[in-house]
Amino acid sequence: GDSVTQMEGPVTLSEEAFLTINCTYTATGYPSLFWYVQYPGEGLQLLLKATKADDKGSNKGFEATYRKETTSFHLEKGSVQVSDSAVYFCALSGAAGNKLTFGGGTRVLVKP
Amino acid sequence: DSGVTQTPKHLITATGQRVTLRCSPRSGDLSVYWYQQSLDQGLQFLIQYYNGEERAKGNILERFSAQQFPDLHSELNLSSLELGDSALYFCASSFRDRGRTEAFFGQGTRLTVV
Questions:
Q1: Among A26, A30, A7, A27, which Cα is nearest to A76's?
Q2: Which of B13, B30, B32, B34 is nearest to B114 (CA)?
Q3: Contact A108/A88 with Cβ under 8 angstroms?
């Protein structure tokens, strides 16, 4: 079945540092890929998405590129802020599937 | 604001009891999904309804059930509650019933079983 693997956290960074969170997936066919963010005490918010190979999703300074050859969708941000402290989830939705399959989540803590 | 509304936000109940969690999807969305988030299990898909019909089942216990009503709101019923059922329960909605679609999440209901 479909699965998503993402790097375990916590990831602790200083403000203005570069952030990368690795995500790889296994799926039948060509899924859509997503990054969701969960701020403390809140629900999941869709951060960005990509629906086909080589697509780049971007939002709020975050980017991720759909790499079919490496089955990856790594999240990057060039300069993080304290307000980016949250848990980030990589997810996929398969062509025939009914649901989102999530990775385990990566907690990011940005210190001033 | 995702447009998905969940009530209540918090619920504290005793073991053996039954509770009902409610979800109103985004306007126009026909699919509702229920997820459980716990510290040790991560985000687990429970069940999906589309336009009133059950479409997919995940790791949902027999003590749990759900339904979607004609106005498209959904309820998740949890019975014979155990301490291990303490978790965050999320509802999400989407327009389509399948196929490479994102879902929009509510704020969740935090259930504490004591």
A1: A7
A2: B13
A3: yes
- Tokens 């994102």 sit on residue: B102
CB contact under 8 A, B102 and A32: yes
User: Is any Cβ of chain A less than 8 angstroms from the Cβ of B56?
Assistant: yes
The verdict on B42 touching A (C-beta cutoff 8 Å) is yes
Q: Give, as one character, the DSSP assignment of residue A83.
A: G
Among candidates A96, A102, A110, which has minimal Cα distance to A39? A110
Q: Which are the contacts of A49, defined by CB distance < 8 A and separation ≥ 6?
A: A32, A33, A34, A35, A57, B102
- Joined together, the tokens standing for residue B72 give 């498209």
Rounded distance between C-alpha atoms, residue B34 and residue A11, angstroms: 28
SS (H, E, C) B37-99: EECCCEEEEEEEEECCEEEEECCCCCCEEEEECCCCCEEEEECCCCHHHCEEEEEEEECCCCC
Q: What is the pLDDT along chain B (114 residues), one digit of tens a residue?
A: 889 999 999 999 999 999 999 999 999 999 999 999 988 778 999 999 999 999 999 989 999 999 999 999 999 999 999 999 999 999 999 987 777 788 999 999 999 999
| Residues in chain B closer than 8 A to A46 (CB atoms) | 102, 104
Phi-psi domain of B49 (left: phi exceeds 0; alpha: psi -120 through 50; beta: other) = beta
| H or E segment to which residue A21 belongs | strand A19-21
